[in-house]
Design goal:
33% of the residues lie in helices and 25% in strands. It is α+β, with helices and mostly antiparallel strands. Strands 4-5-6-9-10 form a five-stranded mixed sheet.
Length: 365
């Protein structure tokens, strides 16, 4: 459920920020048009007032679809501050000329520099904790929640798991065992190393700017990690509770289920060494076809499931708890059993076993 809620929050943040800043990464929402007159005026203004200080990246006409009709005729002007190397944008309203543009750029540049200083302070905290390697962070005020939120993107080679090695170096894992307790509590996502070229700019700086051109499209600072869709793992100090695998209507089966989950948490390799967990995203599960393989056995790997990365007898495995795909006959709230599975990365083997109930104890009262 947490992955679903987090994805929903990020998509909502994206919509809020797009409405606020007039920026969108979706090709059907933001299109570059050949409108020479405004673009020429923008270029002349930037060259006249900010030569050597700002680089004009793009001038885009916002072409909205409903219900964004209020964007009609507006332009997004994307600039790079030569002093900080970071990008920002201003929105030019219909009829606004060079003077209005100059004033907006001055305000936006000041906000950008304040933002950069904040990101560098956050980056310094991570570096003092010992975080190293390929990562970037974003610490910003959420317009949706009105509070500071801190996201960290880490890049790792998934092939390490196929060699029965930890996904991240020991020094990085130890550093993150401290980082998870910072304020605000960071959301730490691990991305495949193959995606590093798409995030080259924030990786080079160590932080995500107010605007980055991810895969060639401008993203606002609330779109820091592409809605989480590319991430394979979430690193945190706690594993999600997964409360809906078995309902309270089946107390004995529920007790057996959550006793097994608690044992998985307590004996987890990463938890015992670093007091952290790695939970898979839907993207990771789909990459290894785990939902389809479980479904072939009549089981479901959906939001009513639990899974953690672990090391078992020297092997890196994904350990999980799932229920049958169909409800128990006669009760749509009941399940006929609960199953534990181990997916071994090195061998691509999926092992499934039913959880045993104490002798003579029925699953339902």
């Amino acid at each position: 459920m947490r992955w679903i809620r987090a994805l929903g929050r990020r998509r909502l943040c994206r919509r809020v920020c797009q409405r606020a800043l007039g920026v969108a990464a979706l090709p059907w929402l933001l299109v570059a048009c050949s409108t020479a007159a405004p673009a020429d005026m923008v270029a002349r203004t930037i060259d006249s007032h900010f030569a050597g200080e700002l680089q004009l990246l793009r001038t885009l006409q916002l072409q909205p679809s409903e219900p964004m009709a209020r964007w009609q005729g507006r332009y997004g002007v994307y600039l790079r501050d030569q002093a900080t190397g970071s990008d920002f944008m201003v929105r030019l309203e219909p009829g606004e000329g060079a003077e209005a543009l100059r004033d907006k750029v001055l305000v936006a540049r000041a906000a950008s520099r304040e933002f950069v200083a904040s990101q560098r302070a956050a980056l310094a905290q991570l570096q003092r904790a010992g975080v190293q390697g390929d990562f970037f962070s974003l610490r910003a005020l959420s317009p949706l929640y009105g509070s500071m939120r801190w996201s960290i993107a880490v890049f790792a080679d998934p092939q390490a798991l196929h060699k029965d090695a930890d996904l991240l170096d020991e020094a990085v894992l130890r550093a993150f065992s401290e980082v998870v307790h910072l304020d605000p509590e960071p959301m730490i996502d691990i991305y495949p190393a193959s995606l590093k070229p798409a995030y080259a700019q924030p990786l080079a700086k160590g932080y995500h700017g107010m605007v980055e051109f991810i895969r060639g499209a401008p993203e606002t600072f609330m779109q820091a990690q592409d809605s989480g869709g590319d991430a394979h793992w979430r690193l945190g100090a706690q594993a999600r509770p997964a409360p809906y695998i078995v309902s309270a209507r089946q107390p004995r089966l529920r007790a057996a289920c959550y006793a097994e989950i608690e044992a998985m948490r307590r004996h987890n390799h990463l938890f015992q060494r670093y007091r952290i967990y790695l939970e898979p995203s839907r993207s990771l599960l789909e990459a290894y076809q785990i939902p389809a393989r479980l479904q072939a056995q009549g089981l479901r790997q959906g939001h009513t499931a639990f899974a953690l990365l672990d090391r078992v007898q020297g092997r890196m495995v994904l350990r999980g708890i799932v229920a049958p795909d169909a409800f128990d006959a006669g009760d749509i709230h009941a399940v006929s059993g609960v199953y534990a599975y181990d997916y071994v990365f090195a061998t691509d083997e999926l092992r499934v076993r039913p959880l045993a109930l104490p002798d003579g104890v029925p699953a339902s009262p």
